[in-house]
Amino acid sequence: MKDARVALFAHNNSERNLLRGAINNPAGGHQVVSEGPSLGAALHVISLMRSGHREVDVVVVAANVAGGEETGTDARILVDRLRELEVVPKIIGHASAPFDTYGIPVDADILHGELDTDPGRMNYLLASLDPPLRG
Questions:
Q1: What is the pLDDT of residues 49-92, one digit of tens each?
Q2: How confident is residue 135, by pLDDT bands cut at 50, 70 and 90?
Q3: Which of 34, 86, 37, 66 is nearest to 76 (CA)?
Q4: Coil, strand, or helix at residue 133?
Q5: Strand pairing category for 90-95 and 31-36
Q6: Distance (Å, whole) CA 87 – CA 55
Q7: Are strands 90-95 and 58-62 parallel, antiparallel or unpaired?
Q8: What is the separation of C-alpha 89 from the centre of its chain, rounded to a whole number of angstroms?
Q9: I need a labelling partner for 13 at 20 to 30 A (CA). Which of 28, 38, 41, 62 fits?
Q10: Whole-model pTM above 0.70?
Q11: pLDDT, tens digit, for every residue of 26-59?
Q12: What SS3 string covers 66-114?
C-alpha cells in the first residue's frame, strides 16, 4: 500500500516514538494520523473512524495498550471493534510474540526489537499490504 494513513495504539512512549519514526519515514510516504496511548483513547479513535471523522488505512495495535503483562486482552477488544467498522483497516500486531499466540487474527505482526535491527521493516510491511476495501 502506498501512503498509508496509520493509527498507532500503544501505551509505551518509547515504543510509540520508535514506531512513529519508522512509519513517518519520508522514504515510505506513510503517516501516523492518530494515536491511542490508552485503551480509552484507542476506542475514541475507533469511534472517530466509525463516524467518518478519521480515515485510517492501517492500525498498529500493541498486545496491551493499558500496559502491564502482555496478555492480549486490550488488543482483542480493539481488534474486535476494528473488525466491526464498515471499512476494516489492515491490522498489524505489535508485541513480543505474534498475535496468533493470543488467538487474535491480524494482517501482519511486527515484533518488539525488529525495528532496532531493521529500521526499514515497517516501510516494507506497510508497502506489502493491500489497501482496505472501501465501499
A1: 999 999 999 999 998 887 777 788 999 999 999 999 999 999 99
A2: low
A3: 66
A4: coil
A5: unpaired
A6: 9
A7: parallel
A8: 9
A9: 28
A10: yes
A11: 888 999 999 999 999 999 999 999 999 999 999 9
A12: CCCCCCCHHHHHHHHHHHCCCCCCEEEEEECCCHHHHCCCCCEEEECCH
- Which residues lie across from 105 on neighbouring strands? none
What distance separates the 2 farthest-apart alpha carbons in the chain?
A: 38
Instruction: Give CA–CA dist 71/68, Å, rounded.
Output: 9
Identity at 112, one-letter amino acid code: H
In sequence order, what are the residues at sequence separation of 6 or more whose Cβ sits closer than 8 angstroms to the Cβ of residue 51?
A: none
| Residue 65 vs residues 2, 23, 32, 70, 88: alpha-carbon distances, Å | 27, 19, 17, 9, 20
Compute the distance between CA of residue 130 and CA of residue 132 in angstroms, rounded to an integer: 6
Q: For a pLDDT cut of 70, what percent of the chain falls above it? A: 99
Among the listed residues 40, 57, 69, 37, the one whose alpha carbon sits nearest the alpha carbon of residue 107: 57
